[in-house]
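Good morning,

Attaching, inline, the C-alpha cells for the sequence recovery test we're adding to the shared suite. The designed sequence is right after.
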C-alpha cells in the first residue's frame, strides 16, 4: 500500500480540501468533548504554518432531510476550531456551490474555512459523483484525515479522492501506522483480546484474527457461546445457541493456523444483573440454572494475564464482562491494567479500539498507556475483519495521480 502523505507534500499556497471527522458530542447545542477537534487541529497547525490554506469538510450527526435545521449546523464548532487551530476560521453555509468556491479562493496562506455539514446534502451519503465534483472545486489537493469515516463510501471519502491529487492527513497516517504495525506485521507472539456481547456481531473479526495472530483470548457474552458449544450449561446467561456452527468453524480455522484460543475456565455468575449484586465464582461448566455469567473469574484472569506475559503485540476489542455494572468490571479492568503495564515497560505494542473498549480502558484509567487507542468504532471493526476500507482504497488509487 502506498498512500501519499500530506506532510511530505509542498502545501504552501495550496487549498487543502480536508475531510475531517469533527462529529463531536454535544448537549443542547454545546460541545461536551472537544477531543476530536483538538486532535485534528494539532495535525493541521504545522500545515498552516507552512502556508497551506485549509478548506475543512465534516459531517455532524445524521440529518434526515437537507433542510437546514440549525441543530445540525457545524457553525457552532467554529470557536473551538479557531482556538485549537490558532487562526480565525471563516464559514461557508453551504458546502458546495459557487459561493463556497469563491470563499475558498479568498483564503490567504495560513487561513482556514469551515464548510457546512456535508450530510445536509443527500449526495454525500449516496457517494454521488456530481456532488463530489462540486466539492472538488473547493481545493487543489484532497486530504483525508478521517479514519473513522473510511469504512463508508461517501462522496467526501471515496469519489472525491479520485478527482483531485489525494493524500492522507496526519491523524489518518497515525492510525494506519498503528493498525498496520499491530495486524499486518505484528511483533510475535501476538495476542488479541476479543470480548463483547455476541459472537454473531464479530464473526468476521474472529475468523480474521485467528488466522493472523498467535493467540486469541475470548471473553464476555461471546465466550458464553463458545462454552455453550462445548456443552456448558448457560442458566440465564447471554449466549447464542444458533451460533454453534460458527464457533466450530472459528475453532477449526484457529487449529489450522496454529492460533491458541483461550476461554475463561472460571466465571463470575450472579442471580441479578445490577450494580453491587452478589457475584459467585464458579467453574465455567457450573453456571446454576437461575444465574447468569457476567464476568471472567480470578483464575481465568490469571490465566489470561499469563498469556499476555509473553505477548509483544496486544490487540483489544470488547470487554470481558458486563463492565458497566460493577463488580462485573473486574476482569476487564485488571486485564487492561496488565496490557497497559506491559506496554509501559516497553515489552509490547498495544492497540485497542471500539466504543465500549475505549470506555472500559477509561474505567481502568489506562487509556494513555496503550500504544494506540482508536475511537473509530465501525472502521476499526472492519479493519479487524481484514476488509479493505473504501476511503483508504480510494487514497491508494489516487496516490499515483498525486
Ligand atoms: P460489544 O458492543 O459487542 O463489544 O459488546 C459490549 C457489551 O457486551 C457491553 O455492554 C457489555 O456489558 C456486554 N457484555 C459483555 N459480557 C457480557 C456478559 N457476560 N453478559 C452480558 N453482557 C455482556
Amino acid at each position: 500500500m502506498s498512500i501519499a502523505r500530506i506532510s511530505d507534500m509542498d502545501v504552501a499556497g495550496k487549498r487543502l480540501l480536508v475531510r475531517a471527522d469533527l462529529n463531536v458530542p454535544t448537549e443542547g447545542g454545546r460541545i461536551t468533548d472537544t477531543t476530536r477537534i483538538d486532535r485534528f487541529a494539532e495535525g493541521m497547525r504545522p500545515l498552516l504554518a507552512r502556508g497551506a490554506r485549509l478548506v475543512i469538510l465534516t459531517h455532524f450527526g445524521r440529518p434526515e432531510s437537507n433542510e437546514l435545521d440549525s441543530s445540525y449546523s457545524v457553525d457552532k464548532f467554529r470557536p473551538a476550531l479557531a482556538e485549537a487551530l490558532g487562526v480565525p476560521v471563516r464559514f461557508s453555509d453551504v458546502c458546495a456551490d459557487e459561493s463556497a468556491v469563491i470563499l475558498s479562493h479568498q483564503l490567504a496562506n495560513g487561513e482556514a474555512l469551515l464548510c457546512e455539514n456535508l450530510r445536509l446534502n443527500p449526495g454525500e451519503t449516496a457517494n454521488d459523483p456530481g456532488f463530489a465534483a462540486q466539492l472538488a472545486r473547493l481545493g487543489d489537493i484532497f486530504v483525508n484525515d478521517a479514519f473513522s469515516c473510511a469504512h463508508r463510501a461517501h462522496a467526501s471519502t471515496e469519489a472525491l479522492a479520485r478527482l483531485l491529487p489525494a493524500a492522507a492527513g496526519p491523524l489518518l497516517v497515525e492510525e494506519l501506522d498503528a493498525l498496520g504495525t499491530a495486524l499486518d506485521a505484528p511483533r510475535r507472539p501476538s495476542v488479541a483480546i476479543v470480548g463483547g456481547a455476541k459472537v454473531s456481531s464479530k464473526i468476521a473479526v474472529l475468523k480474521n484474527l485467528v488466522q493472523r495472530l498467535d493467540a486469541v483470548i475470548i471473553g464476555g457474552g461471546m465466550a458464553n457461546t463458545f462454552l455453550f458449544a462445548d456443552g456448558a450449561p448457560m442458566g440465564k446467561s447471554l449466549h447464542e445457541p444458533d451460533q454453534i456452527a460458527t464457533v466450530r468453524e472459528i475453532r477449526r480455522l484457529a487449529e489450522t493456523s496454529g492460533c491458541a484460543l483461550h476461554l475463561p475456565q472460571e466465571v463470575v455468575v450472579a442471580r441479578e444483573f445490577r450494580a453491587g449484586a452478589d457475584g459467585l465464582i464458579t467453574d465455567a461448566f457450573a453456571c446454576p440454572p437461575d444465574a447468569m455469567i457476567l464476568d471472567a473469574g480470578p483464575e481465568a484472569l490469571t490465566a489470561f494475564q499469563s498469556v499476555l506475559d509473553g505477548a509483544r503485540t496486544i490487540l483489544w476489542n470488547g470487554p470481558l464482562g458486563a463492565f458497566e455494572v460493577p463488580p462485573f468490571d473486574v476482569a476487564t479492568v485488571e486485564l487492561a491494567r496488565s496490557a497497559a503495564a506491559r506496554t509501559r515497560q516497553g515489552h509490547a505494542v498495544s492497540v485497542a479500539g471500539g466504543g465500549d473498549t475505549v470506555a472500559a480502558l477509561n474505567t481502568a484509567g489506562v487509556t494513555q498507556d496503550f500504544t494506540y487507542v482508536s475511537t473509530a468504532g465501525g472502521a476499526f471493526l472492519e479493519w479487524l475483519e481484514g476488509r479493505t476500507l473504501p476511503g483508504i482504497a480510494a487514497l491508494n488509487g489516487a496516490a499515483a495521480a498525486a
